[in-house]
Amino acid sequence: MSAKSPFENRPPEAPHEASDGGFVVPCTLHVNGEAVCVEVERSLPLDALLRRTLALKSVLHGCERGTCGSCRVLVDGEVLSACTRSASSLPPGARVETAESLQDNERMRTVLRAFVRERSTRCALCLSGLAAMAVHLDREGKTFDETAIDALLEGAHCACTGRGSLRRALLTRE
Ligand code: FES
Ligand code: FES
After folding, report:
1. Distance from residue 71's CA to the centre of ligand 2 (Å)
2. Residues 86, 71: Cα–Cα separation, whole Å
3. CATH code for the domain in which residue 113 is found
């Protein structure tokens, strides 16, 4: 996490309201290659831990219901909407990757360049989760055809440009 993050100018996160009387449990994860050992409220969503405690601002506060895609990260190589899981429910030592850890990844750069070329970038609320998913598919060597891209866009909501330009960008990335 040494390089300057394109997400770091985002505003600070509002405090998370305790929802379970402040009952805390230990939580041990590997986040972007670094061991993280913290005590968290048992119900604290993973996105809140990443954004508020660890200041990883690519993980955004959107619908909080698993429908917009703005908080998507990779957990043990699988895509997860981080608002849908509590941090403490992940297996100890689970490997979490956010867009910050992928910013030097050539596949990520390719996807972001395509978003810029197709003018898909406005507020960027939807982009980090989408780019993380695209890197995941590429890395897994999965077919990245129109069907896969439509499935990927299914869980994303872009209020700025809609899905058309995102779809074009993903299809034509070089
Ligand atoms: S904030 Fe997690 S999917 Fe919308
Ligand atoms: S660029 Fe604003 S929500 Fe997608």
Report:
1. 13
2. 13
3. 1.10.150.120
